[in-house]
Amino acid sequence: MTKANSTQQLRIIGGQWRGRKFTFANAEGLRPTGDRIRETLFNWLSGDIHGARCLDLFSGSGALALEALSRGASQVDLWEHNRAACALLNTHLQAMAEQMPEQQANVVQGDTLNNLQTGKPEHAYDVVFMDPPFAANLWETSAALLEQNGWLHPESLIYVESPKDNLPKLPNNWRNWRCKNSGQVCYQLFIAR
Hints:
This protein is α/β, with parallel strands linked by helices. About 25% of the residues lie in helices and about 30% in strands. The protein has one domain: Vaccinia Virus protein VP39 (Rossmann fold). The radius of gyration is 15 Å and the shape is globular.
């Protein structure tokens, strides 16, 4: 049995930091996106991720955000509620800062829904990762808030990971571009219109 305050590891699977291992907090609801799913997702994003501005709404382990940075995203904002997870994410980013002088990464500790409601980005994001804790059922509210306050632009890509037996209702102007299942997980890539 794993202790609540222990850490686990994830491995970057592509890009500049391929093979590098990172620790992440063992927190309730924190479920890193698996290697096979990440490989497929970043194959889908291969023509769009380099130089992209990315937002990871429920960053958790940082698997998606760190993978995006490794593959050349120019900016990644990592939002996470759990304080211990944020501390580990900041530690990883500080260790990598010398290797990514052209890239920017910021960890914001707080409530994602509140951030979406009250924040106003300088620029819309090119890629948004939405993989909340499944039990929290935050997809539809998060998607609606993304549509407000300029978080997305036409052609923004939105990644959504959910249980395949609980697919969220997402905005009508999001075109489903890619969709796959892995076990009990459905992962989809949408294009905002």
